[in-house]
Amino acid sequence: MAVEYDPAIIGKVFDVTDPVPVTAVAVRDYCEALGETNPLFTDEQAARKGPHGRLCAPPSFAVTFRNGRHFYQHVPRFGRSGFDAGKDVEFIHPIFIGDQITLSSHVKEIYEKTGRSGSMVFVVIRSTLGNQLGETIAHIDHRFMHR
Amino acid sequence: MADNTSRTFEDLNVGDPLGPVQLFVSRDQARKYARACGLDFPRFTDDEAARKEGLPGMILPGNMSLGILTKLVTDWLGSGGGLLTRIGTTYRQPVQPDLTLTLQGFITHTQSADRTAEIDVWLENADAERLVIGTATVQFPAR
Amino acid sequence: MSTILDLHSHSEASEDSRAPVEAYLNWIKLRRQERPLDGIVLTEHRQFNRHADYRALEDKYGMLVLRASEIETDYGHMLVFGVNDDITRRFDFADVRLPAQQVIDEVAAMGGLVVPCHPGRSNVGLCEHYEKRPALDNVVAVEILNGGSRKGENERSAALVAKFGYRATGGSDSHMVSLIGVCATRFEAEVGTIEELVHELKTGEYEAVDFRPRPSPIPRAIPVEAK
Fold first, then answer.
1. Which residues in chain B land under pLDDT 50?
2. Which CATH architecture fits C3-209?
3. Which of A6, A65, B51, B127 has the highest count of CB atoms within 10 angstroms of its CB?
4. Does an H or E element contain A127, and which?
């Protein structure tokens, strides 16, 4: 049986209501947790001589911003459990301490395939991150696998 | 550790490697990452809870693998002004902590018109099985 | 004069690959000594790229680029060589539960050939299905060597080949540029078209070949520990 879902969900945009602040503590904790020692992300003095002229978060910090609960109330779930299957991230603008990040997401695609785990349904969510200046920070395609 | 090399577009050749670099991610570090990112769910912090979900044990969050591969690229870029503009990852197998992982990559394509390069990157286990694969795009400033 | 082809590869047309076809060919050219391929077969997931035209790339790189598909059936994944309009009208390649016996028989009748791939893989390989259900009829060849296999999977495929006497192919199953050609198939005859490939797979002499790099010592790195 082909996977069933309401086709109206594809492309419907959901916004997170409250911007998320980027704090020095959050970036520092992230760097420590990842073992990140690049001075562009950890040393203010060194970062001033870098391409951005100030300290910024490592690029992968962008994927730590997630949709609020209200998004997942509307996105269909399939099977008993879901797993992160991968991401495609386009980095457009760096994230700086003090930024306020907003998130806008929609379901880009739903498809079914089979693999070592058996039958799986993939839900691809496209998120766009923006900052308080109206700049686009990143586009992220999250692929979630349900089985 | 970040590379002190100032890598430029002119330094690149298709076939050049990134790494290999060996990495050991402990349980504590995996839990620390999960907490730092608000991902302290049982599958990322507890072996028994993870097994109940059909996993072999506690696993690294996918975002952490992406972060590790991103770091491979940004370390390789060094301080020459090159930027990571895109990375795509596929999580083919769960990555467990307390195991030695190897990170590697190869430059697969360069484009002089926009001074970009494409890089295959991956994270493999001791059996040389690629647990996470990906491709990255880097861009270098004009001279 | 023999022909060596990677019979199983995915370009960026497959949703889980980011490899452009030209990058594949350039990589083969770069690694010619280790992987002496004459060409590749693109086996995109659940689709057949009817309109793709790789002749310009073939001319530029002096290599063959043929098109096929990887479909999903009730007996696992299978490669379909010699896809034509009759076949795509008859079977919806996007269906993940195609009836394997019907596909094998009808594709053959319509001039193509179905080759079960990675048979040793769990859930989507023939071996596991044969443990629970009758063996399929009219299987000519299976993929004995798959470049994306995990420990033990190719060995299971080899046991299946030995038991059933199937012919055996090899392919990289690459989804990234640097893996193209790590496994391939060497044909004794010259193969220059998809029709010749189907003919040789059915009646010719060929074997799977393994060009996977042998692991080399990795320099030790400082382990990163949580503070």
1. 1-2
2. Alpha-Beta Barrel (3.20)
3. A65
4. strand A118-130
Tell me the torsion sign for CA atoms B42, B47, B52, B54: positive
Reported as a single tens digit per residue, the pLDDT across B86-126 is 999 999 999 999 999 999 999 999 999 999 999 999 999 99
Q: Return the axis-axis angle of helices B27-36 and A24-34, rounded to nearest 10°.
A: 160
A61 contacts A42 by C-beta, under 8 angstroms: no
Neighbour count for residue C121 (Cβ, 10 Å): 26
Partner residue opposite C16 with nearest CB, options B1, B28, B90: B90
Token reading at B143: 């001279």
pLDDT digit string, tens, across residues C146-179:
999 999 999 999 999 999 999 999 999 999 999 9
Best of C15, C18, C21, C122 to substitute, by most chain B Cβ atoms within 10 angstroms, is C18
C99 cis-preceded (ω within 30 degrees of 0): no
Long-range contact set of residues A117-124: C-beta below 8 Å, sequence gap at least 24: A117/A145, A117/A147, A117/C123, A118/A147, A118/C123, A119/A147, A119/C96, A120/A79, A120/A145, A120/A146, A120/A147, A121/A3, A121/A78, A121/A79, A121/A145, A121/A146, A121/A147, A122/A85, A122/A146, A123/A75, A123/A76, A123/A78
* Residue A4 within any structural domain of the chain: no
Per-domain boundaries in chain C? 3-209
The domain in which residue A137 lies consists of 9-146
What's the complex ipTM?
0.93
3-class secondary-structure state, position A30: helix
Cross-chain CB nearest to A113 (options C96, C122, C227) = C96
pTM recorded for the entire structure? 0.92
* Domain B9-26+62-139, CATH number (from 3.30.70.920, 3.90.650.10, 3.10.129.10, 3.40.50.2300): 3.10.129.10
List of chain C residues whose C-beta atoms are within 8 Å of the C-beta of residue A117: 123
CA distance B18 to C105: 47
